[in-house]
Design brief:
Blueprint (H helix, E strand, L loop, with lengths): L1 E2 L6 E6 L10 H12 L7 H4 L5 E4 L1 E2 L2 E2 L4 E6 L7 H4 L6 H7 L10 H8 L5 H7 L4 H16 L4 E9 L2 E2 L7 H10 L7 H16 L6 E8 L15 H10 L4 E6 L10 H4 L3 E3 L10 E3 L7 E2 L2 E2 L4 E7 L10 E3 L6 E3 L10 H24 L4 H16 L6
Antiparallel strand pairs: 1-2, 2-6, 3-6, 4-5, 7-8, 7-9, 9-15, 10-15, 11-12, 13-14, 16-17
Length: about 400
């Protein structure tokens, strides 16, 4: 659970259920937070904030205790907003100067104002802002470190910005990770990355914004995460919901996703093979293709989990769209807040955090344990049972 407003004093997250004994690397968390702030096309807010997480509980000397972990990220811009956003005794003149009554098409502005009865849209946009994802990225990095204890690694990269698509089909795993980390747009295809930056420049010149698509891949996943027995326990449902929770994400695909609608069954499904030397996390069963994206019937099948998420363009435009003033009901141009031209590279970082949190939860549910050591013993016993499944004929 997270709390905090975009221009409030701080962002806070509380995570419960992390086993005791997990070594937490602050530099790993900081690396993810810094990556979220970077990216070609980001706006002026990123130059103001220097996000650094503070741990308030649940960690002692770099080791989790098994109690709730709480993380705080202070907002440096709070200094300029105290009179407007203070919990008590605000400056009414300052509040009036910063109040907003012209909702932006594509934002939570209008629906939120009507739902909660606010005439000042700032009461909605401050929490609806993607600023919340700074602390979500921090706790996602903790979840990633838990997964790494089980040799599960997650990659996230940009595969589309505007009309420019990347081709990463022939790029090996390690190179994909390296290329995306080095790219200003987090794209593993260098040729496409250059075109993406030009696309962002063109949008900026037109005072417009751009969306795109990101891909998240989780490697070395064991068979058996999630369940088919209830809809909300299906791993695909949980992962899709988590990624859809990233601001501005409008579609999530698993595996080949929407392309499967074009194929016949003989082309769509992944044939099953067996070898005692392959797929040790899936009893030796494996696929030569992965159109299902590593999930069948709501359960991980031992192949890599692949998700693609589509992000719409940021709704705050330099040349605002038509709207209606909430107070006068008269036509007006939408409000303009400080914003990005393109936040797709950052969305890849946040989507990875969302996937990491959900996969870590699924691993904890499957293998239990109050400590990492106990969880690993359970995991090892499970793999041993898989190896002897059916007599391992």
């Amino acid at each position: 659970m997270t709390a905090g407003e975009s221009h409030g004093q701080a962002l806070v997250a509380i995570v419960e259920g992390i086993p005791a004994g997990l070594r937490v690397r602050r530099d790993f968390i900081q690396m993810r937070i810094t990556a979220r702030q970077a990216g070609y096309g980001r706006g002026g807010r990123m130059k103001i904030e220097q996000d650094t997480p503070s741990f308030l509980s649940g960690v002692r000397n770099g080791i989790t205790l098994g109690s709730p972990v709480s993380v705080l990220i202070s907002n440096r811009d709070w200094e300029n907003w105290q009179k407007v956003m203070a919990p008590f005794n605000v400056d009414e003149a300052a509040v009036q100067a910063r109040s907003i009554s012209r909702p932006r098409p594509g934002h939570a502005d209008l629906a939120g104002a009507l739902k909660y009865g606010h005439s000042d849209i700032r009461n909605i946009l401050e929490r609806a802002s993607a600023r919340e994802t700074a602390v979500k990225t921090a706790i996602g990095a903790i979840a990633e470190q838990l997964l790494l204890e089980f040799e599960i690694e997650i990659a996230a990269h940009v595969i589309r910005i505007g009309k420019v698509c990347a081709d990463t089909s022939s790029i090996a795993r390690k190179q994909l990770l390296k290329n995306s980390e080095m790219s200003p747009v987090r794209c593993a295809d260098p040729a496409a990355a250059g075109k993406m930056m030009k696309e962002i420049d063109a949008a900026a010149a037109a005072r417009d914004t751009l969306g795109g698509k990101v891909e998240v891949v989780a490697y070395n996943i064991p068979v058996g995460l999630g369940s088919h027995v209830q809809h909300d326990r299906r791993l695909g449902v949980r992962l899709a919901a988590a990624v859809m929770g990233v601001p501005a994400i409008k579609a999530v695909e698993i595996g080949e996703g929407v392309r499967l609608a074009e194929l016949r069954g003989s082309e769509a499904h992944d044939e099953i093979f067996h070898s005692r030397r392959k797929g040790m996390r899936s009893a030796g069963f494996y696929r030569k293709t992965n159109r299902a994206g590593g999930i069948e019937g709501g359960i991980s099948n031992g192949e890599n989990i692949i998700l693609k998420a589509t992000m719409k363009p940021i709704p705050t435009l330099g040349r605002p769209l038509r709207s209606v003033d909430l107070l006068t009901r008269k036509p007006a141009k939408a409000a303009v807040e400080r914003s990005d031209i393109c936040a797709v590279p950052a969305a890849s970082i946040i989507a990875r955090a969302a996937v990491a949190l959900e996969l870590a939860s699924a691993m904890i549910e499957k293998f239990g344990g109050d400590s990492i050591a106990e969880m690993k013993r359970n995991f090892t016993a499970y793999l041993r049972a898989l190896r002897s499944f059916g007599g391992n004929a």
